[in-house]
């Protein structure tokens, strides 16, 4: 194997699972335990191949759309959220639903509904085609325009420049989002901002952590799947913050020897939908390559947990069960100096 004999790993903290992901994954696991029937899940519950494959092995059936599900069956909606149209389609098929939408995504949905009622043009900074963006835009399709990047700003048209507000996909790069917003504000000086930050606390915290590590790292490795927006952003943020090289990997099997040529310090983090077992596997492989000196770099502490979806909690209560999660896994961040 390549690499050096005595290397250092700078391990980002926080990293990995956020509260919304933990809630969604545990919701599927508990549903599999407490319902005596097939559990269907619309779209990947979270954007991580390992997690989805593990839930498939346990019996969950993943579908793209609700019309693939037998009438009257039970379906779980993913953490990314759904549009009202999807909910209506589920009702038409008499599906029973468990909504595992991240509460922070739900917050953005409610903002979209409220501003649409006030007849604002809503400029949604996000990536066209992403499940979260489709769900948010679906709340007010006649009022929402998706703005993919600063390059899209010149194409935006609004009815009244005095009644324009921006919202955001929760998993974007903070810096890139604000670059887009600044450019939008140049065109629309009275552009309103969301009442609270749309970009999720976990996305921000993971970006802050990797920014601190990147200048001291010859190589940054981000564990996360290619369709995980926040994982891809972490790789980009690392490069922008000064890492000599940055790569995203789904698992240790994607590592390449040539990445380690001349590398003394490796920065490691993971996206918000990545279980820590994948990071531990990476640390083990890095140790075998000679990078055994692991130094945690903490920039925030996350200590809040979301309760499970209401429908699932009721079913568990009926069966005398409780939410067995006893350790905080994700929410509310407090910055550390």
TrEMBL record:
Supply one GO molecular-function term. metal ion binding
- Which cofactor does the UniProt annotation name? [4Fe-4S] cluster
Active site residues of this protein: 132 (proton donor)
Metabolic or biological pathway, per its Swiss-Prot or TrEMBL entry = Isoprenoid biosynthesis; dimethylallyl diphosphate biosynthesis; dimethylallyl diphosphate from (2E)-4-hydroxy-3-methylbutenyl diphosphate: step 1/1; Isoprenoid biosynthesis; isopentenyl diphosphate biosynthesis via DXP pathway; isopentenyl diphosphate from 1-deoxy-D-xylulose 5-phosphate: step 6/6
User: Its domain of life?
Assistant: Bacteria
Q: Where does [4Fe-4S] cluster bind?
A: 18, 102, 200
Listed A to Z, the keywords are: 4Fe-4S, Iron, Iron-sulfur, Isoprene biosynthesis, Metal-binding, Oxidoreductase
Residues that coordinate or bind dimethylallyl diphosphate: 47, 80, 130, 228-230, 273
Annotated (2E)-4-hydroxy-3-methylbut-2-enyl diphosphate binding sites: 47, 80, 130, 170, 228-230, 273
Positions contributing to isopentenyl diphosphate binding:
47, 80, 130, 228-230, 273
Q: How is the cofactor bound?
A: Binds 1 [4Fe-4S] cluster per subunit.
- Which ranges are annotated Basic and acidic residues under compositional bias? 315-326
Pfam families recorded for this chain? LYTB
A Gene Ontology biological process in which this protein takes part is:
isopentenyl diphosphate biosynthetic process, methylerythritol 4-phosphate pathway
**E.C. designation(s):** 1.17.7.4
Q: Which Gene3D superfamilies match?
A: 3.40.50.11270, 4-hydroxy-3-methylbut-2-enyl diphosphate reductase, catalytic domain
Q: Where is this region: Disordered?
A: 315-337
- Reaction it catalyzes: isopentenyl diphosphate + 2 oxidized [2Fe-2S]-[ferredoxin] + H2O = (2E)-4-hydroxy-3-methylbut-2-enyl diphosphate + 2 reduced [2Fe-2S]-[ferredoxin] + 2 H(+); dimethylallyl diphosphate + 2 oxidized [2Fe-2S]-[ferredoxin] + H2O = (2E)-4-hydroxy-3-methylbut-2-enyl diphosphate + 2 reduced [2Fe-2S]-[ferredoxin] + 2 H(+)
Q: Where is the composition biased (Polar residues)?
A: 327-337
Q: Which PANTHER family match?
A: 4-HYDROXY-3-METHYLBUT-2-ENYL DIPHOSPHATE REDUCTASE
Protein family according to the UniProt entry: Belongs to the IspH family.
What is its biological role? Answer: Catalyzes the conversion of 1-hydroxy-2-methyl-2-(E)-butenyl 4-diphosphate (HMBPP) into a mixture of isopentenyl diphosphate (IPP) and dimethylallyl diphosphate (DMAPP). Acts in the terminal step of the DOXP/MEP pathway for isoprenoid precursor biosynthesis.
**What's this protein's name?**
4-hydroxy-3-methylbut-2-enyl diphosphate reductase
Q: Which organism is it from?
A: Brachybacterium vulturis
| Gene giving rise to this polypeptide | ispH
């Amino acid at each position: 194997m390549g690499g050096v004999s005595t290397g250092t790993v700078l391990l980002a903290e926080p990293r990995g699972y956020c509260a919304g992901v933990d809630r969604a994954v545990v919701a599927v696991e508990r549903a599999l335990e407490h319902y005596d029937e097939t559990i269907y899940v619309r779209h990947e519950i979270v954007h991580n191949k390992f997690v989805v494959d593990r839930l498939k092995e346990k019996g969950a059936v993943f579908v793209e759309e609700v019309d693939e599900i037998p009438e009257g069956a039970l379906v779980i909606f993913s953490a990314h959220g759904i549009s009202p149209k999807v909910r209506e389609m589920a009702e038409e098929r008499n599906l029973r639903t468990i909504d595992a939408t991240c509460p922070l995504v739900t917050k953005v949905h409610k903002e979209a509904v409220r501003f649409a009622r006030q007849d604002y043009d809503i400029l949604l900074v996000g990536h066209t085609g992403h499940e979260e963006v489709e769900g948010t835009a679906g709340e007010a399709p006649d009022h929402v325009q998706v703005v993919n990047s600063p390059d899209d700003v010149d194409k935006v048209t609004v009815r009244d420049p005095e009644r324009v507000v921006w919202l955001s996909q929760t998993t974007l790069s903070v810096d890139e989002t604000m670059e887009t917003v600044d450019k939008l504000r140049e065109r629309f000086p009275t552009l309103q901002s969301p009442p609270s930050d749309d970009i999720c606390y976990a996305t921000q915290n993971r970006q802050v952590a990797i920014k601190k590590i990147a200048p001291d790292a010859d190589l940054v490795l981000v564990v996360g799947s290619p369709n995980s927006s926040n994982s891809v952003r972490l790789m980009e943020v690392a490069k922008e913050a000064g890492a000599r090289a940055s790569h995203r990997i789904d698992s240790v099997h994607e590592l390449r020897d040539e990445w380690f040529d001349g590398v003394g310090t490796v920065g490691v983090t993971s996206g918000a939908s990545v279980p820590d077992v994948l990071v531990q596997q990476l640390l083990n492989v890095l140790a075998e390559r000679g990078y055994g000196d692991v130094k945690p770099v903490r920039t925030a502490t996350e200590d809040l947990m979301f309760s499970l979806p209401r429908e699932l909690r009721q079913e568990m209560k009926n069966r005398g069960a409780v939410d067995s999660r006893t350790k905080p896994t994700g929410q509310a961040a407090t910055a550390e100096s």
